[in-house]
Design brief:
By secondary structure, this protein is mainly alpha-helical. The chain has one domain. It has helices at 12-18, 31-43, 79-99, 106-124; strands at 5-9, 23-26, 66-70. A 3-stranded mixed beta sheet has the order 2-1-3, with helices on both faces.
């Protein structure tokens, strides 16, 4: 990836590994908190660089989300980015309401951290 970016995540693995090299914003909270933090950045002129729901894992199944946004910001709101993040928030809320969040054991949570990290690592590289 050539463009400078900010990593926004609630995944401690992504924070620890990517934070060594990239500007990283850690969100203490669930995936909805991450999505809303990204939306706040978009309102300030940043753009989405990765899709907020990338992967085939349903939004209610994984508690971790790592998203890249542009480091540089515009003087305007990027409507495409705003539409994508708003749809991501609505979809995630719908899945959580309909299917609830499973109560995963620690080993499965570690797997979800690794999957989330691996997806964003490959998007960067």
């Amino acid at each position: 990836m050539i463009e400078r970016f900010i990593v926004i995540t609630n995944n401690t693995l992504s924070r620890d590994k990517l934070g060594e090299k990239y500007d990283t914003q850690f969100v203490s909270g669930d995936t909805i908190s991450v999505l809303k933090e990204v939306r706040d950045y978009i309102h300030k002129g940043h753009r989405l660089l990765t899709h907020p729901l990338m992967s085939s894992i349903k939004p209610n199944e994984t508690p971790y989300r790592t998203i890249l946004i542009s480091r540089d910001k515009n003087d305007f709101v990027d409507i495409d980015s705003l539409n994508i993040i708003e749809n991501g928030i609505m979809t995630t809320e719908k899945f959580i309401k309909m299917f609830k969040i499973p109560n995963w054991d620690e080993s499965i949570l570690e797997d979800f951290k690794l999957i989330d990290y691996d997806l964003i690592y490959h998007a960067i590289n």
